[in-house]
Design a protein that fits this description.
Layout lengths: L8 H9 L17 E4 L16 E4 L15 H13 L6 H7 L3 H10 L8 H12 L3 H6 L11 H117 L3 H43 L7 H102 L1 H20 L2 H25 L4 H5 L4 H27 L3 H18 L12 H23 L10 H10 L1
Antiparallel strand pairs: 1-2
Helix pairs in contact: 4-16, 7-9, 7-11, 7-14, 8-9
């Protein structure tokens, strides 16, 4: 049994209406089982007819077999099965696999069985509702679409591109305006807060200044009283010290004189180098004298021995004729010993007395030199101490004298200033006396600690408010506090003020700039779209909102899907016979 394409509108919509509700039954040459139906659509325009192609597949009642290995039609088979399952049409795997072995059937399935050509369940439901409302005949006849031309692809693309450009421009301008509005609101809020803080700070400062003025007056009076007391005490101390200064200085100088005399005695008792040389010379002289005495003693002894020998020789001259010769020989020997006696006596004196005495004298001299050095060092240190003490006494005297003169000049100046100040404030004080009497009495009655804490707390509060205000303007309080001069502070404040003025000018220029250059493309796109889609319509376009933008995005997606379907559709098949479809229908019809 063979089926051709339905060209009539009535038959086409009739089949689409009953596609998902029930099944047609036909006799298949292969079996007598009922067959399922699925439709293929082709949409050329919204008011054109649709082309439907039918395929009948036996109903599947058993479990599907395992896919065969090595086949080349698994993908196409899976696509056909997925399409049938999505539309709830019963099928049989073996019949689909057998039908897809035919090349013509595969070509027909590849062209006509797809998401772009098949009607979905939603479309079929919509068509059923239209048919149930008895408006299908009017739509099929096309009486209302006679004066409306179709929307061309180029117009749709142009309108879409214009919409995208205008949307992006509008979004960018909206974002810029939103940022500017937020910045202006924040600036306004900050200005209001700054103004409030300034007013509060001014009120606090005025209150604080009043309290500080009262506290300052009280402190000034206390300072005057304390200063007068200290000045009188200092003057009394200076007069007392002046009386005791002469006696103290004279006693110190007398002590210094005693120390100096002791040092003179120590220096006088110290032995000098000249005395050491004199001692050495005297030792040498004594040793020479001793050697001479020894030589004379030896000579005397020799002479006595010679005389005794001569006397004994006179007694024995008669008995011994050779006595004279012996005397002559003795005399010659004694005469030869005289030169050696002086030399030997000198050597003996030097060896026995001169060298040991000099050695002991040198040792004693070394020890005495060390002692003398220590004594001289002690004398030097004592003299230095005395000198420093004298200098310190002199400096103290000079300082005391300068202090006394300065104190006297300060006292005289203070008396002059106090008298002049009293004369200048005599009249204003008489006027303000009644005003400040109550405040001063309250201030005197309040505790001293609370009076001291009020200026500190007010100062801290002012510092915090100033720091907060500077932070809002982007200025660091530490940078101003650490500035080296007032010129640096003025430079920082002027730079920040110029920056803020420039930013406000830019914001004002942006807010006051016209929107025509940015919204011109949007206006053109709106005009093109309204002329293409609403030329003969009874409705008017409304202002674009977020819902409309979402609908436009969905419409763009649908238009893209329609364009893909149109590109993949072969329109020549409407005017010529399809051999593959005919073979498929001959086999399965």
């Amino acid at each position: 049994m063979q089926y051709n394409a339905f060209t009539g509108r009535k038959t086409l919509f009739y089949i689409i209406n009953y596609l998902s509700s029930y099944l047609y039954y036909a006799q298949c040459p292969m079996s007598k089982a009922p067959l399922g139906l699925f439709a293929v659509r082709h949409q050329q325009a919204w008011h054109e007819a649709c082309c439907l192609q039918l395929a009948f597949i036996p109903v599947f009642t058993t479990s599907p077999p395992d896919p065969y290995e090595g086949g080349q039609y698994n993908k196409m088979e899976e696509e056909v099965i997925a399409i049938l399952k999505s539309r709830g049409i019963p099928f049989k795997y073996e019949d689909i696999r057998t039908a897809l072995e035919d090349p013509g059937t595969r070509d027909w399935v590849r062209k006509h069985l797809g998401d772009d050509t098949l009607l979905s369940r939603e479309e079929l439901t919509l068509y059923s509702r239209i048919e149930a409302s008895a408006g299908l005949d009017a739509i099929v006849q096309g009486n209302e679409f006679s004066g409306t031309r179709p929307v061309l692809d180029d117009e749709i693309k142009t309108a879409t591109e214009s919409l995208k450009a205008s949307t992006s421009a509008t979004e960018s301008q909206t974002e810029a305006l939103r940022l500017q509005c937020r910045e202006l609101k924040s600036q306004i809020r900050e200005a209001e807060q700054v103004e409030q803080q300034c007013s509060k700070s001014a009120s606090r400062m005025s209150t604080g200044h009043t309290a500080e003025r009262q506290q300052t007056d009280l402190e000034i009076e206390d300072l005057i009283h304390d200063f007068e007391e200290k000045l009188q005490a200092a003057q009394k101390t200076l007069s007392t010290d002046q009386n005791n200064l002469i006696s103290t200085t004279s006693s110190l100088l007398r002590e210094h004189d005693v120390v100096l005399r002791n040092m003179e005695k120590v220096a006088a008792n110290s032995q000098s180098v000249e005395e050491s040389s004199l001692l050495k010379k005297r030792v040498s002289d004594l040793c020479a004298l001793l050697a001479r005495y020894i030589a004379e003693e030896i000579s005397c002894r020799l002479d006595r021995v010679f005389l005794e020998t001569v006397e004994s020789a006179k007694d024995s001259e008669d008995d011994d004729p050779h006595v004279l010769e012996k005397l002559e020989s003795v005399d010659a020997e004694i005469n030869s010993l005289y030169p050696e006696i002086s030399i030997l006596s000198d050597m003996a004196a030097r060896q026995q007395f001169h060298s040991p005495i000099l050695r002991v004298l040198e040792e004693w001299q070394e020890r005495s030199q060390l002692g003398v050095e220590e004594q001289l060092q002690h004398v030097l240190e004592t003299i230095i101490q005395l000198t420093e003490s004298t200098d310190s006494i002199t400096e103290k005297l000079k300082t005391r004298q300068a202090h006394q003169s300065a104190l006297n000049s300060l006292a005289s100046t203070y008396q002059d200033e106090v008298g002049l100040h009293k004369l200048q404030k005599a009249k204003p004080e008489n006027k303000r006396l009644s005003k400040y009497s109550s405040r001063l009495s309250q201030a005197y009655a309040s505790p001293r600690e609370s009076m001291e804490m009020k200026p500190d707390s007010a100062e801290n509060e002012l510092t915090r408010s100033l720091e907060t205000m500077l932070r809002r303007y982007g200025i660091s309080f530490s940078s101003l506090r650490n500035a080296k001069s007032t010129e640096a502070v003025n430079d920082i404040l002027n730079e920040k003020a110029s920056h803020m003025l420039e930013m406000l000018e830019n914001i004002y220029a942006t807010a006051a700039s016209p929107l025509i250059p940015n919204l011109g493309s949007a206006d053109k796109a709106a005009q093109l779209l309204s002329s293409a889609m609403h030329c003969d319509s009874d409705f008017e376009p409304s202002l674009v909102d977020r819902d409309q933008q979402q609908r436009i995005a969905n419409l763009e997606m649908q238009i893209g899907a329609v364009q893909k379907g149109i590109e993949s559709l072969n329109t020549d098949i409407l005017h010529q016979s399809d051999l593959a479809r005919e073979n498929f229908m001959e086999r399965w019809g």
